Amino acid sequence: MDRGTLGHVVIGNQDISKYSDKELNTYRRTDIGFVFQFYNLMPKLTALENIQVSANISLQPMDSEKALN
């Protein structure tokens, strides 16, 4: 998520456009989650392991097994 240059981004009554770089990085990790740069998965991992990668850095991860169903 890039930083805006004009206007405001308000999510859940929080103006995240005013966040410091550190606050924005924390927000990305805890509220947005992990987004792959490319559409494909990491080839040496199973589908479940690919999902678990993002679950390892999230404060409130969804169950990896349920994500596959």
Describe the protein's architecture and organization.
The structure is a single chain. This protein is mainly α and 69 residues long. It has helices at 21-32, 47-55, 64-67; strands spanning 10-11, 14-15. It has a two-stranded antiparallel sheet. The relative contact order is 0.12. The model has no long low-confidence stretch (mean pLDDT 81).
How many DSSP-defined strands?
2
Content-based structural category: mainly alpha
Task: Give the percentage of residues in beta strands.
Answer: 5-15%
Order of SSEs, N→C?
Answer: EEHHH
**Physical arrangement of strands within the biggest beta sheet:** 1-2
How many helical stretches?
3
Please state the CA-atom Rg, rounded to the nearest Å. Answer: 15 Å
Instruction: Report the helical percentage.
Output: 25-40%
Largest sheet properties? 2 strands, antiparallel
Shape: elongated
Low-confidence runs of at least 5 consecutive residues: none
Overall pLDDT score: 81
Distance between the termini: 28 Å
